[in-house]
Structures are given as structure tokens and as C-alpha cells.
Amino acid sequence: MKFTDGNWLIREEYNVLGAVQVHDFEQRNGRLTAYASPRPIVTRSNMLDTMLLTVHFHSPLPGIIGVKLVHHAGVVDRGPAFELSSQTGDHVVIEENESEAVLTSGSLSVHIRKGPEWAVDFYRDGERITGSTQKSMAYIKENNGNAFMREELDVGVGEWVYGLGERFTPFVRNGQVVDLWNKDGGTSSEQSYKNIPFYITNKGYGVFVNHPELVSFEVASEKVKKVQFSVSGESLEYFVIDGPSMKEVLGKYTDLTGKPALPPAWTFGLWLTTSFTTNYDEATVNSFVDGMAERDLPLHVFHFDCFWMREFHWTDFKWDERVFPDPVGMLKRLKEKGLKICVWINPYIAQRSRLFEEGKQNGYLVKRPNGDVWQWDLWQPGMALVDFTNPAACEWYAGYLRELVDMGVDSFKTDFGERIPTDVAYFDGSDPNKMHNYYTQLYNKVVFEVLEEKLGKNEAAVFARSATAGGQKFPVHWGGDCYADYESMAESLRGGLSLGISGFGFWSHDIGGFENTAPVHVFKRWLAFGLLSSHSRLHGSKSYRVPWTYDTEAVDVTRFFTKLKCRIMPYLFNTAVQAAEKGLPSMRAMVLEFPEDPTSEMLDRQYMLGDSILVAPIFNEQGKVTYYLPAGKWTHLLTGEVVEGGAWRKEQYDFFSLPLFVRPNSIIALGANDVRPDYDYADGVSLELHNLEDNRMAATLVRDMKGVTEMTVTASRQGRAISVKVDGSGKPFTLAVKGLGDIVSVDGAKAELVNGVVQLSAGESQVELTIHI
Questions:
Q1: 491 conformational bin, left if phi > 0, alpha if psi -120 to 50, beta if neither
Q2: 415 tagged catalytic
Q3: Which of 72, 503, 672, 738 has the fewest CB atoms inside 10 Å of its own CB, making it the most exposed?
């Protein structure tokens, strides 16, 4: 939202009262409070007929400093509020001298200037990283009576801003106006299903605006050296989060708002759906499932989209008996084929649903202010919304989910949750404007917790479209409705990278696009991208997405990349645990892994899958691709070709390959199973040591399907000798050295050298050996 008219003037409809001078300070219980006036206090008469901004500085966790601006403190906050973690104030130090007051938390400190000119500066170990200057903090009154609170934080030369949720616009946010308001707008506009009031910069700090309602950002747009954010009302709270690395910022941000849960291993396999508006019954489903098996296409999850329920009855959690007369038996038969089952749901209750009258009578549905049930005819006739602020309504909704889990359902696609009205009254009195974005958090929480209750911890996963801050706790999320073309493929990737850098660990998208049916070349290129994403789903709108409906080669490409994903599962699942433990995304923007490389700062058509594998999807029929490799020797995972990085490359690939390079000084763990994502990763694991440089180390972990470490592998190089240590399970494994020439000999343990690969049989859990190259 813009309040100024250029650099000097204020827009006519606004009166901006910004902090000009600090008047006084108070300290209490680890909190520093400053009182700032909008004009100089020179005489006592200056204190009359003016307002005073109360600015609270505090720290919930080390390295995080919160700032809360308050105009009138008498306004009741009706919620909802984000669930944030905090510690006691023992980590906070407050000091005051003649020129400033300082609050320090870990390596981060905030300095509030005394004297005639207001300024708030954030320092990391003595270096200023951002701050708020005179009049940046402001209370703003619109001529019509609306009130806003505003802050402006500095953006330095060469500083790039990222995040704010899953956004499909350019990856770097500088120059963009971003209004955080969840909408069902597809992937081809400035609208987003997942609006997150958190941004991060390449200077290694982040800012989280602690408001679930509409937050309006001007990112180096209204004022090109400022990130401005504003909210309606009488108060504004934000947190500055220090890294100093971008990865550490994500770690601290997810310490504050919640770490992603670890999804079960089976979710990383290939998902196939009925598609949306297609006709299907059990015979159709079996033709898909059996067709995949007949073509040697590994399939791991089958998803029933909307029409598993009867039309006009969504949502009633009841199988359409006309096409699924024996759902329990059908699910049992599908699960006997080794499949997990997902079904589509949403939080809306149509008037024809068997749940509508029950929900109405018991007060489980969102109401209008006059007490009527809120309804409209968009999406479903007479559609109402479940009121998840009512604990009884949550339990009512959860009860139907439990029945489906007992039938054999393993996961729910929690669709929608964005079209939430504001002309309503909630059971707990929540502010409807704040509930608009926050509604999805309550919705996904109820569903996720049912799965966790019924299936166990780390066995729960939803497939969610909408989210707000904290939604990362309930994975997995997918990108929403995209078109079947290369442009939508690229915008989907931008959205996924933006969501990942906003604290979300896992992300997926509709392979081949949702709207329309992709040309076969688009489908095949998207397959490689989709099966090298954290989660992989074949889904569409009006046509089936089984590969043989495209052509024979599409079947072969599907097989190739599905089996490849199953093989890299030991590596990928270790990456998933990093997401759960550290808040790092599985699919990482290049700037996260290479923050010192200026070229990486703008890249949004390639990514790191985990910390060691670079993926550059191809966005054209001809297979031409331009991509960037950071410095060092990189090895193509499929061909073994070693190339020198630090440069852009232009190449051409067929449908069975793409730029897929292993970072130097990496150990990649490949599994012994290429048909399932859930297996014993340590048993027969193949370890590949890539381009280990002299006087450098490499390390990796191989975990079991609960995320527990089974093998710890480290390697160090001195000249032509590589020392390897494996603390592990005692299961057999192999070790290959890539990019350094042939292995001449190996000493230690009971190791054999077979065709240039070190082999160790089962039995030894502590292995030390030296490889000579």
C-alpha cells in the first residue's frame, strides 16, 4: 500500500505521523520500551495535542529481536495469532548510555538512538544490517477514518529480497508490490495460495511480520531503498532474524514458527490420480494401476479426486455408491497391490451434503453476524464453511476423517481453504480479517493431527494447497492450478523455490500441468522436473494423466525417472530429515547453497535438490538449456562426465536426461531398490564420493525410514590418499570414487576392489580404510 507521492509528498488521502524523536525509555522483564513522538519535544506545550508511539523491543529466542509498534493500546486483539516459540529472557542484555539504548540477543542487537533524530538500527556483531530511520515507523490515518501502522526497513546496495510465500512472479522480490491475502488464482498471476509474511535477504537476515491478516509489502517499490510493510489497525509487530547465513535464518525462523514434520518415506514415490472432472470407477482405477504395473512403471500412491463423492454433495465424506459400491473392499484390493491411498477433501459443506443440517443445528458452520449460516453458490450450491475455531466442530470433522482412515485411506488432499469470507462471525469471536489467511492453518492442523493420531508420528502427510506462516508443520504442499505449458512449468518452479525460502520443507506440482492437456514434449520435460522434486504427482483437470495416453516414449521417460528417484531415496530422505531438523527446504534456491557466488542470487530456473545435487529443468521442446555451475569440478549423475564450474553452460539433452550434476566434495548415497521409495536404505547402499579436493572433507548420513541415522560416512583427502570412515549398520555397501581417476588400491577392513569399486560385505559396523587413487 502506497502512502507517499514521490519522495517528498504525502498522498492527499492520508495523514502520516511518523516517529521523529524518542521521549523516554523503560525496562521491564527483559523488554525495552521506547516512547517516540511525531514531532520534536522542545517545550512542554509540544506534549499537548499529539500522539505517542509506544515501541516494545523484545527477544523470544537468541538471534531474534521483536519490535511492536502501538498507537492506542486499548484495542482488543480478538485473534487468531500465530503460534510462536519463546524462551525466558535470560538471553537478553539491555544497556543504556547517553546516546542510545541497546537490546542484544545472541549476535543481533538493536540500537535506539536518543537525541533529536529517531533511528532504530539492527547490528550483527557490530555491523549494521538494516534499520528504520526517522518517520519510517508511523501511524497513518486515512480521510475516511481507516487507520494503518507502517514500518520501513532499509535495503542496501546489492541487497536482494526473497520469500513472502509461494509467489509466481519474478523470484527476486525487489520492485514488487505484494499484498498477502490468500486467493485461488492459479499460478499465472500475482495472487498466491500460500502467503507468508516473512522475507529473507542475501545479507543473511530475515523479517517476519507477526500478523495473519492482510499485510501489504512495498519491496523496494514505493521507496527503492526500503522494504515497507503495513497493516490496518493500531499496532504492528515484526521480528528481525539474524543468520548470519541464509540457512541459519531459516533455522531460526522455523524455530520460532515451527519445523516441518518429516513425511513418511512412501510419500516420496510416484502419485497417480483420477484427475479432476474425468469419469472413473473401480474398473477405471484398476486399469490405471494395472497398466502401470504391466509397463513396469513403479507406482506408490493412488489418489481419488473430487468425484469419489457424489456431485453437489461436497464435502460429505461418503463414497458415491453408484460407482464405488464397495469402497472398503476396493481400498483393500488396491492396498494389496502395494499402494497407499489418498482422497480429496475440502473444508466446505454443500447444502446437499449429509453434513449440512447436522453442522447447522450444532453450530459447526461459520455464521453471518446475524446468526444465519454463511452460504454462497460459488464452487458448490449453498456452500458453507466448517468453523474450525469451534473445538466441537473440529472433533465433528475429524470423526469423519477417522472413519476414512479406518477404511484404508492413508492421506488427504486438503484442497482449497483460500476463499474465506470476511463478512462472518466465528464461534470464538476471531477477527474475520485475520481468519481469512489463518483459516487454512486450522483446517490443515485438524486433518494432519487425525493422520498422526491414527497412523503415528512421522507417518502423517497431507497434500495441501493453501497455507500461512506455520503451515510448514503440516506437509506436503503443492503449487495449485497451472497450465500445461513451459511457462507454467517455469512459474511453478519459481513458486516452489519461493515457498522453500519461506520456511517450507516439501513441495510438489502437477506434472504436465493441471489445466488443458500438455503436448507430449511438455509432459516428458515436466516428468524429469516432477520426479526430481521432493514429491511427485501425475494429476490433471479434464484428461487422464497415465503416461501411455501421450506416447510410448512418455512411458519410458516415466519409468526412467521414477526408478531414478527410488534409487536416490537414501540421499533424498536424508535431505528430508534436514528439512525437519533445520528448516531447510528439500528444493533449494541456488542462493541458499552458494551465498558467496553473486551469479546464484538471481537464478530461478535451476535448483539444488538437497545440498549436493543440482537440477536444471528444460523448458523447451528442443532440449536446449542454459544453466550455471558454481566453481569446482561437477560430475553428471547419469553420465559420469566431469565439467569445470564457475561458468554458464549451453547444452542440448534428449528426454532421458537434463543437467543433473553432483557438487564437488560430496558423498551421494544411492539405494539398492529402484521400484519403491520406502525400503532399507542402508542395506546394499552404493556410496559415491565425488571430486574430493586435496585437504578437504566430505560427509553424509544414511538413515532408516524413521529418520534415525544408520550410517555415518566421512572422507578426507591428502594428496593421492583418501581416508574413509564408516560408522554404521554392519550391512553391505559399496564405495566408488568419481572424478578423480581410477582406484589403484585399498587398505583396511575386509574390502575388495571390483571393477574400480570398493565392496564391503555385511558384518562390520566400524570401517576404516584408505583408498589410493
A1: alpha
A2: yes
A3: 72
Q: 152, 242, 410, 418: which one is catalytic?
A: 418
Closest by CA to 431, choosing from 74, 73, 79, 82, is 79
Task: Convert 518-546 to b/e letters by CB count within 10 Å (16 or more is b).
Answer: bebbbbbbbbbbbbbbbbbbbbbbebbbb
Note the pLDDT of residue 25. 95
Residues sharing a CB contact under 8 Å with residue 283, sequence separation 6 or more, in sequence order: none
Cis bond upstream, residue 80 (ω within 30): yes
d(CA 99, CA 455): 59
How far is it, in rounded angstroms, from Cα 753 to Cα 683?
Answer: 19
Active site residue 481: yes
Q: In what order do the strands lie in the sheet with 195-201?
A: 21-28, 31-37, 53-58, 64-70, 235-242, 205-209, 195-201, 161-165
- Identify the active-site residue in 242, 415, 491, 710: 415
Please name the amino acid found at residue 769: L
Between strands 685-690 and 666-670, the pairing is antiparallel
Residues 7-19 pLDDT 10s: 999 999 999 999 9
pTM exceeding the 0.90 threshold for the entire prediction: yes
Instruction: Look at residue 48 in the predicted model and tell me its pLDDT.
Output: 85
Catalytic residue among 222, 481, 485, 491: 481
What is the β-pairing status of strands 348-349 and 384-385?
A: antiparallel
**Is the pLDDT assigned to residue 521 strictly greater than 90?**
yes
* Integer angstrom CA distances of residue 502 from 176, 418, 579, 698, 753: 17, 19, 12, 28, 46
Nearest to 188 by CA among 541, 536, 513, 419: 513
pLDDT in tens, 564-593: 999 999 999 999 999 999 999 999 999 999
Of 46, 39, 44, which Cα lies nearest the Cα of 19?
A: 39
Residue 619: name the closest of 720, 428, 486 by CA. Answer: 486
- Cell numbers at 508, concatenated: 510438489
Of 407, 363, 414, which Cα lies nearest the Cα of 387?
363
- For the record, the C-alpha cell of 391 comes out as 473445538
Provide the residue type at 734 as one letter: T
Three-state SS annotation for 15-63: EEEECCEEEEEEEECCEEEEEEECCCCCCHHHHCCCCCEEEEEECCCCC
Distances (CA, A) of 11 to 1, 5, 147, 177, 231: 11, 5, 15, 17, 17
